[in-house]
Amino acid sequence: MRAPILLLCVLLILVVPSCQFSRKEHADLQPNIILFLVDDLGWQDTSEPFWTDTTPNNRKFHTPNMERLADEGMKFTQAYACAVCSPTRVSLLSGMNAARHRVTNWTLRRGKNSVPEPENLSIPEWNVNGVQAVDSIERSIYVTPLPQILKDNDYLTIHCGKAHFGAIGTPGSNPLNLGFDINIAGHAAGAPGSYLGKNNFSSAWRGGGKTWDVPGLGKYHGQDINLTEALTREAILAVDSALSVNKPFYLYMSHYGVHTPLEPDDRFYKKYKDRGLEEPEARYASMVESVDKSLGDLMAYLILLY
Fold it and tell me: What is the tally of structural domains in the chain?
């Protein structure tokens, strides 16, 4: 009997499908786990409402797979979210909120604040170097990361997409140092150079530095493919590898979308323009639907397996 799937979809909230297994099944099987994380998505930026009623903003978007997941599972509508990237990601690794782990802003360069110090104000000594699994890195939070705990309990742990855990030059910049067996496209930066394969997922097209170039996806360079789609394909291949060695898996499916740059997914962009959305809303809406398609593709893949 295959292990059950526990699918967590993190927008600004946590969505968990209803699963009913006997106590014996829980004792005999380690559930496979997928944590599906969307970056910088507002609470009204889906067609699934996270309030008592659908809002005008909800009606701008089309996210049928998020609707389905919410209908089949559990939806939380009262939650707290950090307003920037790294604190949330560190919380998911550590189980601590930002007040405790003190990674209170987004990380990038070792020992440096990621934002200028406001005039007449002093920024506290927050942990600018992010999260680490070693205790030798200054201004960082030292933890035993969740993926390491799962790995120690015989899980194959897969990171796919945006990491943004630790500053450049620290061990935490590489997910492999945080308990992941497989790292697909994760590094220190919190935004992609580009979402387009024809741009090699690089920021060269806009004169940006190599810091933002998405690593490890060379086989898609020059192709007419969106980064969100490429990551979904790679995640499915990685899960296949876990199943081939008969291990339970933890997939941290962490999309770069819908972070800037706002580059449209051409599969969905025209639809939103035809509906009258102006720029950059049409581009953004196409990116939201691109992420929703990824969720749907993963759900369809799991149905084939189970």
Answer: 1
